[in-house]
Amino acid sequence: METFNLPHPLTYNRIFVAGHRGMVGAAVVRRLVAESCEVLTAPRRELDLTNQQAVQDWMLKNRPDVVVLAAAKVGGIHANNTYPVDFLYQNLMIEANVIHAAHLADVPRLLFLGSSCIYPKHAPQPISEDSLLTGPLEPTNEWYAIAKIAGIKLVQAYRKQYGRDWISAMPTNLYGPGDNYDLASSHVLPALLRKFHEAKQNGSPEVVVWGSGTPLREFLHCDDLADALVFLLKTYSDDAHINVGSGVELSIRELAETIAQVVGYEAKLTFDASKPDGTPRKLMDSGRLHALGWNRVRVLRDGIAGAYEDYLSRVAE
Ligand code: GFB
């Protein structure tokens, strides 16, 4: 079995980015341009990642050196809470198919992406990697969390049983170009960008913010995540999954106020208590990543300004 010597330069590697049309996958593809590697992608119409046979056929035919598993069914608190089957079933299928096919094709290096929601609802803050499976999950996203925990365990199982040099990274809440701005299924940051933009256009005096506005969230730009992932691919080999956060934390109310400034429109914030708050706080401890030597996080306001440009150019009417 081929193993990787670390640090590994990635030069001339054939790297399959599963989920290249998603926000994270697209960011990874952008970042890999600087690495002199060959990026492999598979459009959804040609490869359905929930189809086991199709994934195995594709992997055995293409035999990449590296797989970055950025494909997932993702969504904000409302979508997670409303479509538990989609978030559990689709993510289990995608992970199991891609990870097992990578094993069959003897892929030397694989990076699986989890999520900060894998941790218990009331985990001590900032949340260290060791908090996994120490308490009950946040109910609004336990389906997604269980699927992501299964993915981490699958990667660990292949390491343990077959000596695969595969790793898992846990990103915090993400935002950036390519985000989903559909109000029913998006995360909070793109949703509020859209709401403030539309309020500005319509001259509306108020913007509705779900929940109480008090939950605390940490936000990381997808291009910063992609940079950290490439760093980990080159340098990290361990059974333990590793947190990728920004350390930039604020309340949902503060986020709304920041977005108001970026969009340039002051509106009254109305809090909709019929919508769930979700987990009260979700700040990751990224100390392990920093100790390895990565800590390059952009200023949140600059990142949000870039995301707003993306929204204006791609989505806004
Ligand atoms: O980003 P979000 O949907 O997901 O919501 P989570 C974060 C917080 O923002 C919650 C509030 O307290 C929401 O109630 N919020 C306020 C809004 N206004 C809005 C709005 O207009 N839209 C949305 N979506 N939220 C997700 C998980 O949890 O985080 C996923 O469901 C995943 O599994 C993701 O892990 C990273 O941070 O609560």
Annotation, overall tally of beta strands = 12
**Which consecutive residue ranges, at least 5 long each, have pLDDT under 50?**
none
The helix-strand sequence is EHEHEHHEHEEHEEHEEHEEHH
Q: What is the gyration radius calculated from CA atoms?
A: 19 Å
Structural class: alpha/beta
Net shape: globular
Features:
10 helices, 317 residues, four-stranded mixed β-sheet, six-stranded parallel β-sheet, 41% helix, alpha/beta, binds guanosine-5'-diphosphate-beta-L-fucopyranose
Description:
The protein is of the alpha/beta class. Helices cover 41% and strands 16% of the residues. It has helices at 23-32, 52-62, 77-82, 84-104, 142-162, 188-202, 222-235, 252-263, 287-292, 300-314, and strands at residues 14-18, 38-40, 66-69, 109-113, 165-171, 173-175, 206-210, 216-221, 242-244, 249-251, 268-272, 281-282. The strands form 3 sheets. The chain has a 6-stranded parallel sheet, sandwiched between helices. The longest helix has 21 residues, at 84-104. It is globular, with a radius of gyration of 19 Å. The relative contact order is 0.15. The mean pLDDT is 96. It binds guanosine-5'-diphosphate-beta-L-fucopyranose. The site of guanosine-5'-diphosphate-beta-L-fucopyranose has 25 residues, from helix 3, helix 6 and strand 7. Guanosine-5'-diphosphate-beta-L-fucopyranose (GFB) binds at residues 76-78, 80, 115, 117, 140-141, 144, 173, 186-188, 191-192, 209-211, 215, 217, 252, 275-278.
